[in-house]
């Protein structure tokens, strides 16, 4: 039998644990796996692109466990009442190849993306950062705001979206968050006085969400929305002014902001900063950019955290995902049973 964590299971687990604790503990698993980065099999995600969006598989493994996530990105889905991103994931035993856990990952991806963003900011943003600007108030926005409050100590959020209904939704969801929220009239107004700027838009196109003249000294940019070929959010001049940090260069050069730059454009890998092999922020005046596209090890960490968390609880069910004949050489015999 394979353990299965469905949407209802995960919602109940987060309610029981508390979203703040869940994000903090999840960030710890992600950080620990970044610290052992060389132990993982790594490859850019396998993507199937269409005019409407993309469907991707994101695999990775260490010596004991193999994990993958199925995820889509279809910006036009919301016009049909569907979500832009949906996902599920599997964690398997390397020694036998048997799956151990099957989980929903639409919610879990939102949580791990926010946890990774805030974790990176702990290493790259100024320690006294308290004001965050957020451009794009779709499905990821509340998760980002919560994670930055919990993990970085953000107290004020200045937000902007081209759709006023998105801003209204964000304010309703975050009314009890303890954050001071200002709804700006433009992205230019939103970034005024911000220590951290998060861009998390969904349209699959090259866009200039942030232009160079909007970015002052000392800002940390958390660029989340650019995550596939042909989709960017930052003007290239910003990348030239700041220092860029990435998860896995081979993937980020295809999908991230740095797809705009030459192949030899210098970047620093986040795992090297976390382990102390490379410098993070070097001064209070430096501009730091986390060119985040999401990498498979973060999903692996999330699945590993979830599997540990649900043991001995009622937050999963068991399903007969794998055929189990009494004689493993007699698979056909299962079809002859009544």
UniProtKB/TrEMBL annotation:
Transmembrane segments: none annotated. Its EC number is 4.3.1.12. The keyword Lyase applies. Keywords: Lyase. It is an enzyme of class 4 (lyase). It comes from the Bacteria. One of its GO terms (molecular function) is ornithine cyclodeaminase activity. PANTHER family: KETIMINE REDUCTASE MU-CRYSTALLIN. This is Ornithine cyclodeaminase. The lineage of its organism: Bacteria, Pseudomonadati, Pseudomonadota, Alphaproteobacteria, Acetobacterales.
């Amino acid at each position: 039998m394979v353990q299965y964590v469905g949407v209802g299971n995960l919602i109940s687990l987060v309610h029981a644990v508390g979203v703040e604790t869940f994000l903090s503990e999840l960030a710890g698993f992600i950080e620990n796996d970044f610290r052992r980065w060389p132990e993982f099999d790594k490859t850019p995600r396998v993507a199937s692109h269409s005019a409407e969006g993309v469907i991707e598989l994101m695999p990775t493994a260490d010596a004991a466990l193999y994990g993958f996530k199925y995820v889509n990105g279809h910006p036009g889905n919301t016009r049909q009442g569907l979500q832009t991103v949906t996902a599920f994931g599997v964690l398997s035993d390397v020694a036998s190849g048997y799956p151990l856990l099957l989980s929903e990952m639409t919610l879990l991806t939102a949580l791990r993306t926010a946890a990774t963003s805030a974790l990176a900011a702990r290493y790259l943003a100024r320690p006294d950062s308290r004001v965050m600007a957020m451009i794009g108030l779709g499905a990821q926005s509340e998760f980002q705001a919560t994670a930055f409050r919990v993990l970085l100590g953000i107290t004020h959020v200045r937000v902007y979206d081209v759709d006023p209904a998105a801003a209204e939704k964000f304010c309703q969801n975050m009314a009890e968050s303890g954050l001071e929220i200002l709804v700006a009239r433009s992205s230019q107004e939103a970034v005024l006085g911000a220590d951290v700027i998060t861009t998390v838009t969904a349209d699959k196109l090259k866009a200039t969400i942030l232009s160079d003249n909007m970015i002052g000294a000392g800002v940390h940019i958390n660029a989340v929305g650019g995550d596939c070929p042909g989709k960017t959010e930052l003007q290239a001049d910003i990348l030239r002014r700041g220092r860029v940090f990435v998860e896995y260069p081979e993937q980020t050069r295809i999908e991230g902001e740095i797809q705009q730059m030459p192949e030899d454009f210098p970047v620093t890998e986040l795992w090297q900063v976390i382990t102390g092999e490379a410098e993070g922020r070097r001064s209070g005046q430096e501009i730091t950019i986390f060119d985040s596209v999401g990498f498979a090890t973060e999903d692996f960490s999330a699945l590993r955290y979830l599997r540990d968390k649900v043991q001995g609880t009622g937050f999963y069910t068991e399903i007969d995902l794998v055929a189990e004949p009494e004689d493993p050489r007699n698979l056909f015999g299962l079809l002859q049973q009544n």
